Amino acid sequence: MLATEHIDIYTQYSIPMWEKYCKMHGYNFFHYSEKILEDMAFTWSRIQMMIDHQKKSSADYIMMVDADTLIYHNMYDLQVSEIVNRHMKPGQQILFQKDGSDRFGLYFSHNFKLSYDLKRWVLPNAGFNIMANTEEVRNFLQTWIDLGRGRLKHIADIHPRTQNVLIRGVLQDPELDKLVGYLPSKLVSKRNTKFVQHLSAMSKEKIASRIKAEFDKTF
């Protein structure tokens, strides 16, 4: 997790939840609290964080979570290995949260216009992912940063920044795109989900209130 002190209002709840989850399963939890890439927008430090962490970790898989995520109190038993075995297809090494959610039993993209423009109904949300600790994934991540600094620099600082470059750059390479799979929105999403809720487009106060409500059921 990458989170600075300016969002302590809700990380005071989300960090202990993720620490508890990791402790239950024997995982290591890492909280990065400072910007790593000085020449790019803050969110780009998450990508460098993942590269650096992969290089020094012996874990088979690394799960990156945004600070504005919560774990439902009755889902702590679900292990990363179960998620990978169930949802990562042969040849895939990365599982992204879908940038969409289920409504009335149907999946809807949160950015319909972009999905339509790119003819890609399922788009990734860069704020929650599970990645294999491999050279192929590190190349994927490095390509992501290189595009943000280079050919796609003009969109690298336009919201949603890293996702812009991921969708319009990295995933346009068939060899990199085939590494990617997607988690069901019923598992991780902004709404109508069962394992992790990823809150966004809300004030810090509303995020804090929502995470605290689940925190209070957990501790």
Automatic annotation (TrEMBL):
Keywords: Glycosyltransferase, Transferase
Domain of life the protein comes from: Bacteria
Alphabetized Pfam families for the sequence: Glyco_transf_34 (PF05637)
Keyword Transferase: yes
Presence of keyword Iron: no
GO cellular component terms, A-Z: membrane
Protein name: Galactosyl transferase GMA12/MNN10 family protein
Source organism (scientific name): Marinoscillum furvescens DSM 4134
